[in-house]
Design brief:
about 300 residues; three-stranded antiparallel β-sheet; Helix Hairpins
Length: about 300
């Protein structure tokens, strides 16, 4: 056994200090790089949030929707990216102090695999919700039809969408289970009317009356701001059993197609009545023919036999 002397201890201490210093410098460098990475991440996400707000705020229907959407997206991105950066920093620091990180990585992989199998529906909902919000498919305040159910969008999260229908019933849909989504109020909406008139009416005259009613409605101060473009007279759409069907379309601001449509129908009925334009309706006529006469009824006295 070698004797412990000053000459032996000093080189060993110098070697330990040198290695510790090198490891400390590497750890410090890792921490500095990680800190800078988090700072650049924060600045980049703030810039991304501004871009999303500027791109979506002018056309938003509910004030603050664009900011809420941008904050939601950047928040989830910040959480994911920060977790990745911290995980890399911790692994590198453990490696620098001499710990074997392979068992840790293997254990984390097994745990992640088990969690993934157990929460696959939740993960599917979260991923679907992220892309749904990222692509701006639907917003708060929209009227949408999801899987055949329509209603007002009251809440959007990364896991679910909440609709409230006209009767007040609340419907909650997991994002991963959405197969069809129809947004009825994205950017602009439309009121479409298939109007039936009698065959005796001249189509050009009817279309001119419908156009005039649409122009008068658009010039009304109470409805002027609800229009996106003038009324479109599509033309004769169909020959029905008892009517000529004429189609029109009015582009409106989102959520205004129903108000505009109700007022247009009211005014159109009054205009048709004033112009004596017939709106056909189902009716039935009963005719009594003369091909066979009525049955003859003869009243006999009570004392006379029936077969006499």
């Amino acid at each position: 056994m070698a004797e412990l002397s000053f000459e032996n201890v000093v080189p060993w201490l110098l070697t330990v200090v040198e290695k510790a210093g090198e490891a400390g410098l590497r750890i410090a460098l890792i921490l500095v790089i990680g800190y800078l990475g988090l700072r650049f991440l924060r600045l980049g996400l703030q810039q991304l949030e501004r871009v999303i707000i500027l791109a979506n705020e002018p056309g938003e229907q509910v004030p603050g929707t664009a900011r809420k959407r941008a904050a939601t997206l950047t928040g989830i991105l910040r959480t994911i990216a920060s977790a990745v950066i911290w995980a890399i920093m911790i692994i590198e620091v453990l490696h620098q102090i001499g710990l074997d990180i392979r068992p840790i990585l293997a254990g984390a992989g097994i745990i992640g695999l088990a969690v993934g199998f157990g929460a696959q529906n939740l993960i599917r909902d979260l991923i679907s919700g992220f892309f749904l919000i990222l692509e701006d498919q639907i917003r708060l305040g929209d009227v949408a039809v999801i899987n055949g159910t329509g209603g007002l969008v009251e809440a959007i999260t990364f896991r679910t969408i909440t609709l409230r229908d006209f009767s007040g019933v609340v419907h909650i849909f997991p994002n991963g289970a959405i197969t069809t989504l129809s947004n009825m109020t994205k950017e602009w909406s439309a009121f479409v009317l298939d109007m039936g008139v009698a065959y005796k009416e001249h189509p050009d005259r009817v279309m001119e009356v419908m156009r005039q009613v649409g122009e008068d409605l658009q010039n009304d101060p109470n409805f002027r701001d609800k229009f996106v473009s003038p009324i479109e007279i599509i033309g004769v759409e169909n020959f029905a059993d008892s009517a000529i069907v004429i189609r029109i379309r009015i582009k409106t601001r989102p959520l205004e197609q129903w108000n505009v449509g109700r007022e247009y129908r009211r005014r159109l009925k009054l205009a048709f009545d004033a112009q004596r334009i017939e709106i056909p309706f189902p009716h039935r006529s009963l005719y009594v023919g003369e091909a066979s006469g009525p049955f003859k009824v003869q009243v006999l006295p009570a004392d006379i036999p029936v077969n006499a």
